[in-house]
Design a protein that fits this description.
With 175 residues, this protein is α+β, with helices and mostly antiparallel strands. Helix content is 18%, strand content 57%.
Length: 175
């Protein structure tokens, strides 16, 4: 079975990825690494993020990342300490990546960059309903190869701010 990213990128797109990124996106399995999760100090936003399924703040915590196939979808499981962040990913409209976390679905385009990917052109649905662009979060998400590691960084901001309410970054060993 072909991975979700392989379905979107195609064979040519996968080959363009650095080995550290390609291994993670073309296979299922378990990967180990480290993650830092930074959260807003606003208690209401922290509570909302926790209810949505985001982990609490951590500094350089061990990360166990598992990808499992579920029909045409993939389940991504991130174990950070005693917390689990589980998302489901699938292909949307033939060339977009959809990822569900709780009641929120984020849809983005995979854009090859520097041996890795940027996720761009974000759209959101909450409980199946489209979130208007003016009310949707701003997301910066990228992955890059770095000295044999797969490095990732995700920052989510409120639509009226460029200060992240949650940011997580780290690395996974893929060899």
């Amino acid at each position: 079975m072909t991975s979700v990213y392989a379905q979107i990128l195609g064979a040519e797109g996968l080959v363009a990825l650095a080995p550290e990124c390609r291994v993670l996106h073309e296979s299922m399995g378990r990967f180990e690494g480290e993650i830092t999760v930074e959260m807003t100090r606003n208690p209401f936003l922290r509570l909302a993020l926790r209810c949505a399924g985001f982990p609490k703040a951590f500094e350089q915590a061990p990360l166990s990342f598992t990808k499992e196939k579920q029909g045409q979808r993939e389940v991504w499981i991130r174990q950070i300490g005693d917390q689990v962040m589980r998302t489901v990913q699938w292909v949307e409209d033939g060339d977009m990546l959809a990822e569900r976390l709780g009641a929120m679905t984020a849809i983005s385009r995979l854009s090859p960059a520097s041996g890795g990917l940027d996720l761009t052109e974000w759209q959101f649905r909450f409980a199946g309903l489209a979130v208007p662009r003016w009310a949707a979060p701003n997301v910066m998400a990228s992955e890059r190869p770095d000295q044999g590691l797969y490095r990732f960084e995700i920052a989510i901001c409120l639509p009226w701010s460029d200060k992240p309410i949650v940011r997580y970054h780290g690395w996974l060993a893929t060899s």
